[in-house]
Amino acid sequence: MDLVDPRAVARFRRNRGALAGLVIVLVAVVLSALAPLLAPHDPNTPFKSRTLTTQGVPIGPTREFPLGADSVGRCELSRLLYGGRVSLIVAFASTAIVVVLGTSVGLVAGYFGRFTDAALMRMVDALMTFPFMLTVMALNRIVRRPGLWVVFVVLGALSWLSLSRQVRAKTLQLKEQEFVLAARALGASSARILARHILPNLATLVIVIATSVVAQMIIAESALSMLGVGVVPPTASWGSMLQESESLTRAVPRLTLAPGLAILLTVVGFNLLGEGLRDAFDPKG
Amino acid sequence: MRSTRRAEAALVVALSLAACTDPHTRPQRMGAGLAGPRRGGTFRFAMDGDVGTADPALTADVTAMLVTRMLHECLVDYSATGTAEVIPALAERWEVAPDGRTYTFHLRPTARFGNGREVTSRDFVYAWERMLNPRRLPSPGAENYRLIEGFEDFREGRDAHLRGLATPDARTLVVHLSAPDRTFLHALALRFAAVVPREVVEAVGDARFGTDGVGAGPFLVDAWEPGFRIALRRNPYYWNAPKPYVDRVIFEVSIARHLQFMRFLAGELELAHNYSLSTADYLWIRRQPAWRPYVTTTPVPTVAGFMMNTEMRPFDNVHVRRAAAFAIDREALCRARNYRIQPAWGLFPPASPGHRDDLPNAQRFDLDAARREMRAAGYPNGYPDEVELWIGEGESGLVYGQLIQADLARIGLRMRIKQASGSVYYASLGRPHTVAMGFTGWQMDYPDPANFIEPSFHSRSIQPENSANHAFYRNAEFDRLVDQGRVEPDAARRIAIYQQAEQILLRDAPWAFIYNAVELTAVQPYVKDWSLHPVWNYYPGDLWLDLPTRAFQAARRDLARALGPLARLATPGVAP
């Protein structure tokens, strides 16, 4: 079975917003992936009197430091590139967790129904009552060794709930379709039906949702790091860069604008891409 | 049509630009130019924290101590200038017996409480016994008075009264000490030893005395609104008339830093202090020529540093501690903090007794020395494991933490930054085997070396919980010197003893001393005789406000009204 409908590709290519989203996402991914090659300096080295004026104010853009220095005297451009890396790694990794958990729970609940469905969905209901930000902050505070992995595991573990609901709904629809009934009549096992007949039909739905989850995760990571409970210093992420620029914002707005614009553009990019994919795969809405 | 739209667009742009620029590049109101101190006006300032009580027996944090100072009076006080010498307050004079163990205080005839009643020596006995009775109030200041004779017997309930106190008459108080104590007069100026009126304490009760009580201080509580503001008015019976000069003090609490500064610029607060100013605001006000005369920077007797836990690896090795102390580039730290701090190389801050500019064996930045010490420690290629570096939440902690992390990485000490919120942070610092290295500091309560040294480094200050000795540092020779310093009668020899003790600290390096604080304050132009008090910080009891009197303002209004038509005539192009 062909996963990608050629008509969908054509629709996607006609959608200018979707193409713009794709370009933004590709640029962000490439810049982050190549950060070690592109960054002019180590992102965590303070250059002290070379980058801070005698008043202690970070210097503006120079040839050596193309975006100037941050409040501790580190290279702003290098931190922006490495920070994008961290932000995207966290976003992709937590989205992967979301996709795996959300799809499998939704699939199992929708296909087997009855007690399994009730049990899994009540668990989802219970998890949904947790205030997202507070829970993430609390979990991140109580682990003994906070680090990048804690951020994405926690974000992923708390964000798959709505995906599982949508996958379940779609599975409920699919399992009543003739091809599933036919497969069952031919004696196919549940595992085979799930893997070969239902899952491929869920792919577009999951891809579309996952794209917008990436955008949400970028924002969530930035918010956490901005509140000081995300990545561990001196690791740069766009959120931690926002946090560290806060008290200097009025004096050196550049330090807040750079990571702020990076977050804005990347999130817009992923959302445009997600919407474009949805329109392409599912023109009826 | 098109040009109108363009004009509209230009107007919008101009207005948004105007909204972005700061309108208050100069003060809202200047002084009236009156001569000499005079009474009147309201002094308003704000803090982001709150004050729960101003009971003199209970207040130990800096902000609450300021409020308590405004409300309560002691036998003696700290002078507002210099290194805060002990000066007479409710006691007009005193004698110390040659053996240094008996103090006789003579109260002023003008000493009155805010309710008008005369202060007697028996009020002091009542107040001190109230403060020192652990079954009544858990006073954090009790240990300051442990050398008063009978202290232990009274604390443990064996005596009903403190044996060392006597009141031969209503204006004379005699205090007997079990050993001479060079810090005793200093301790008597702490508000723990303030006098309280028995009848008021008994009328409102111990729990409410802090907010509803009356003291003998320069101000009385007018309205105490928790979480909002504390309004004070002048005590008409204050002994040191004509002080205080201001009629009212409004102390607003729980006001965010940025808001404090905006309200100061709008002329709604008389004082902006260090904790009102973000880095951007700090840089901004220092660039404003119109504000320059009203901005002062004062070094304050605070020393901050990073403690290294002498019981935890790798800092149980003195060479590693010394290496860390040498490896920290203090100048770079101060630069990154916009020189709101000054580098410290030793224990005693400038403007405190004991400080030496030419301190021998100072902890200066010296990478070669640091690497030598790492070799001596047995780690020529660095320490193999990661070590936790604790900092509090907030911007400045992050700056220090990340810079020190980068500095220590250069000598092979890999630090992992651990951030903790205020209460968790301080609880962890005071617990054994918990914090390997962490930010700590000490602001002096009274200007005496003993006050700096004993809580932070004496082995007596090591406790299983809430240990004030955060490095869990023990050195018998050091303890002996410090105990000797407390009782040494000769002032110069005392300082020499403490400086000798400081040398031991530099050798053993339980702390890397990092900086001394510098406090920046800005006041409105009409605030006169303002200075940062060395102990009571923003105490407004000595300043006066150069504001026009009501009569003067009415006269000016009348004049303006009379001159109005003339002014219009004199302005061409304006029809009357």
Describe this structure in words.
Chain A is built from twelve helices and no strands. Chain A has a single domain, classed as MetI-like fold (Orthogonal Bundle). Chain A starts with 5 loop residues before the first helix and ends with a helix. Helix content of chain A is 70%, strand content 0%. Chain A has 285 residues and is mainly alpha-helical. In chain B, strands 11, 12, 13, 14, 15, 16 and 17 form a seven-stranded mixed beta sheet that branches. The two termini of chain B are 36 Å apart. In chain B, a hairpin with a 7-residue loop joins β2 and β3. Chain B has three domains: 142 residues, 3-Layer(aba) Sandwich (D-Maltodextrin-Binding Protein, domain 2); 146 residues, Dipeptide-binding Protein, domain 1; 220 residues, Dipeptide-binding Protein, domain 3, CATH 3.10.105. By secondary structure, chain B is an alpha+beta fold. Chain B is built from 18 helices and 19 strands. At the A-B interface, loops of A face α9, α11, α13 and β15 of B.
- What is the percent of helical residues of chain A? 55-70%
CATH architecture tag of chain A: Orthogonal Bundle
Rg of chain B, alpha carbons: 27 Å
As a percent range, the share of strand residues of chain A is: under 5%
Number of strands of chain A: 0
CATH fold-type name of the largest domain in chain B: Dipeptide-binding Protein, domain 3
Give the integer mean of the pLDDT values of chain A: 89
Biggest β-sheet strands, sense, barrel of chain B: 7 strands, mixed
Gyration radius over CA of chain A:
22 Å
SSE string of chain A: HHHHHHHHHHHH
Structural class of chain B: alpha+beta
Task: Work out the count of structural domains of chain B.
Answer: 3
Q: Give the biggest sheet of chain A.
A: none
Instruction: Tell me the number of helical segments of chain A per DSSP (H or I, 4 or more residues long).
Output: 12
Shape of chain B: globular
